[in-house]
Amino acid sequence: MSYTVGDKTPEIRVTPDKYLPHRYAGASGDFNPIHIDKEFAQMVGLPNTILHGLWSLAQVQRAAIQAAGNDPTKVKTLSGQFRGMGQPEVEVVVTGEITTVEESGEAIIHLEAAQGDTRIIRNATAIIEP
Amino acid sequence: MAIKTDAVGKTYPPVEYVVGTEKIREYTAATFDDNPLSNDEDAAKAAGYAGLVAPPMFAVVFSSKAAVPAMFDPEVEMNFAMMVHGAQDFTFHKPVVAGDRITTTASVKSIEASGGKGFYVYTTESVNQNNETVVSADWTCIVRGVEA
Fold first, then answer.
1. Comparing C-alpha atoms, which of A129, A60, A27 is closest to residue B93?
2. pLDDT per residue as tens digits for the range A57-88
3. How near does any CA of chain B get to the CA of A6, in Å?
4. CB–CB of B143/B113 below 8 Å?
5. Domain for residue A86, yes or no?
6. How many domains does chain B divide into?
């Protein structure tokens, strides 16, 4: 694959259903009750259960994989910051853009994930191989 | 609460994990990842892999089993009630494939206070059965109400 600065990553739009955090808890092993127990979440001051940050980052990962010709083994790095709280039953939109193409052909992508005006993953960066 | 940094550099016992085909499928289903290499054994084998290729972030599944005990280490004294997962940083060195036997070692990379918050960074290093590093990760936890 060759990459071009300014190219956008394929847009990911996905709505996690009410029980998605339970399935992700089982798949990932992260059973922190703020993600799966509304009463517990409210007891610690949250409005409701919140999405796992690493689930949201996995949606960013999907955009990076698709940008790399749909080859998961071409994703060499992925990082991101968890800020706004992600909510179940609200559409997540992942956008990204290639900001640098190295001489080696590797591309650096900057991405983010948002629910409406709330950016739930900020300053995400991925490096993908040619 | 004053921050305690004694645990910086501490390394924890390695944790072994065997990557299973259905576990990869469970992870891809929960993350809506329909990539053929990670879901269809025939597609993975046609591409030259011994089995399903784990999505890069499947690393969460095996490396958290090493990272979480480090986070809960009483010697670190991280206040969970005030903690959020602040950031995550992965470097993927080699693909992870169903059947791989992955060994992950966690350590405390840094503990710093800044602006009334504590920044606890844990690192995990995962190697496969051939002793090749497959993924390294930094896990940043941010704790409110911490002074230098």
1. A129
2. 999 999 999 999 999 999 999 999 998 899 99
3. 23
4. no
5. yes
6. 1
Report residue A44's pLDDT band, with 50, 70 and 90 as the boundaries: confident
- What is the CATH classification number for the domain harbouring B139? 3.10.129.10
With a cut of 70, say whether residue B1 has pLDDT above it: no
B57·A53 Cβ contact <8 A: no
**Helical spans, DSSP H, in A29-52:** 38-43
Which domain covers residue A35, as residue numbers? 12-128
pTM above 0.80, yes or no: yes
Q: What is the pLDDT of residue A84?
A: 83
- The answer to whether ipTM exceeds 0.90 is yes
Residue A5 lies in a domain: no
Query: Of the candidates A44, A59, A72, which has its C-beta nearest B37's C-beta?
Result: A72
Closest Cβ–Cβ partner in A44, A58, A77 for B31: A58
For residues B87 and A63, what is the distance between their CA atoms, to the nearest angstrom? 18
In-domain check, residue B48: no
The whole-angstrom distance between A20's CA and the closest CA on chain B is 7
Is B41 a member of any domain? Answer: no
Q: Which helix or strand (DSSP H or E) is residue A77 part of?
A: strand A75-82
Find chain B residues with C-beta within 8 A of A62's C-beta.
31-33
Containing domain of residue B116, as a range? 15-19+54-144
B10 lies in a domain?
Answer: no
List the one residue out of B118, B120, B113 whose CA is nearest residue B70: B120
Q: Please check whether residue B84 lies inside any domain of the structure.
A: yes
Give A-chain residues touching B91 at CB under 8 angstroms.
76-77
Cβ distance of A57 and B88 shorter than 8 Å:
yes
On whether any CB of chain A is under 8 Å from the CB of B26, the answer is yes
- CB–CB contact B95 A23 (8 Å): no
